[in-house]
Design a protein that fits this description.
Elements (H helix, E strand, L loop, with lengths): L1 E2 L6 E2 L4 H8 L1 H25 L10 H25 L3 H16 L6 H19 L5 H4 L11 H6 L10 H27 L8 H6 L2 H11 L14 H16 L6 H6 L9 H8 L2 H4 L7 H10 L1 H14 L1
Antiparallel strand pairs: 1-2
Helix pairs in contact: 2-3, 3-13, 3-15, 4-5, 4-8, 5-8
């Protein structure tokens, strides 16, 4: 038991992962504030260098995604270096190996198998080898007087704010699995003949004219989901109208739709992957967000979704 924030009360600080988070709350809160301030400054500079297209433009979602992922990756690398020192090298190595599993043949049934085996293996290996100390990995650099290069790398910048990087990495493993499985399911759907026209990113990129024409062309009869549990043509028309409303504005998509609907194939890229895995506000304690949901929120904009939710609650 350790002294708590309430005078005279103690807290259970025995769990290492929770203790490391609790003991560094002031520092982490400062980092989040800094993240918010720097993002606003970066957005202003980026808008000056590359002006944002109109919201109804087919390039708006891609522009928004590029702007956010550049900042998120740069900030995350600086943040993780301060947090874990040179252990960030180990983290990036694990991320690249996991990314390669679904990169070459994403629709293969071996992707989910290798993903689960690799990530579960990483959890056990992290614990068994205690985070792979550099002095154990690089013994051939240890020569002559002193502790050697491996020891120096372990203690660079004091080992970082949180020396046990492998403890917090347990949450990150869930995002590694989420990315590969979302990529796998998207590739399988594409091979089975399902088009990408309903994807969360395609909805945001279509111009109003193209979208309306596309919706009219498909119609309600082309979606087999509309026939499930529907007894009349009138009911199908009502359901189809709801789907059209959602597809007309991506903010209408609920959480289930955002998770289930795949992103475009080209958005399962290395930079988007790193931006998702290393997203600073969610890196330490979550919550866990699927890759499809993350990409959707980045492209549409969380503020737009919040305002839509408030408006929906008021008018409901």
């Amino acid at each position: 038991m350790s002294p708590g924030w309430i005078p005279g009360r103690k807290v259970d600080n025995s769990d290492q992962q929770y203790a490391s988070f609790r003991n560094n709350i002031p520092i982490l809160f400062s980092v989040l504030v800094l993240h918010f301030v720097l993002r606003r400054g970066f957005n202003a500079v980026y808008a000056w260098v590359s002006p944002s297209p109109p919201k109804n433009s087919s390039y708006f979602a891609a522009h928004n995604l590029n702007r956010r992922k550049i900042f998120d990756i740069i900030f995350a690398i600086i943040f993780l270096t301060a947090l874990h020192s040179l252990n960030i090298i180990k983290i990036l190595f694990i991320l690249l190996v996991n990314f390669s599993i679904s990169y070459f043949h994403p629709s293969s049934i071996l992707v989910p198998v290798f993903t689960w085996v690799f990530n579960i293996g990483v959890l056990f290996a992290n614990e068994y080898f205690k985070g792979y100390r550099f002095r154990d990995i690089l013994p051939f650099f240890i020569a002559g007087e002193g502790e050697g290069v491996g020891h120096a790398m372990d203690h660079f910048m004091g080992g970082g704010i949180l020396k046990r990087w492998e403890i917090l990495f347990n949450i990150t493993v869930l995002r590694l699995i989420s990315y590969n499985l979302d990529h796998y399911w998207a590739a399988v759907r594409l091979e089975e003949g399902e088009t990408e026209e309903g994807s969360v990113l395609e909805v945001g990129r279509l111009t109003p004219q193209g979208e309306d024409a596309d919706l009219e062309r498909r119609g309600s009869a082309d979606d087999p989901r509309l026939d499930e549990g529907v007894d009349s043509r009138e009911e199908r028309l009502i359901i189809n109208a709801g789907l059209k409303k959602k597809k007309a504005d991506p903010a209408h998509l609920n959480e289930h739709d955002r998770i289930d609907t795949p992103a475009k194939v080209e958005d399962y890229s290395l930079l988007n992957y790193l931006a998702y895995i290393l997203y600073t506000p969610l890196y330490l304690a979550g919550p866990i967000l699927s890759f499809n949901d993350f990409i959707h929120q980045v492209c549409v904009g969380i503020l737009h979704m919040i305002l839509h939710g408030i408006a929906k609650s008021i008018t409901a």
